[in-house]
Amino acid sequence: MEVIPRMITIRQAAAETGLSYDYIRKLCLQQKIVFVRAGSKYLVNMGKLIDFLNGEQVTA
Question: What's the superkingdom here (predicted)?
Answer without folding.
Answer: Bacteria
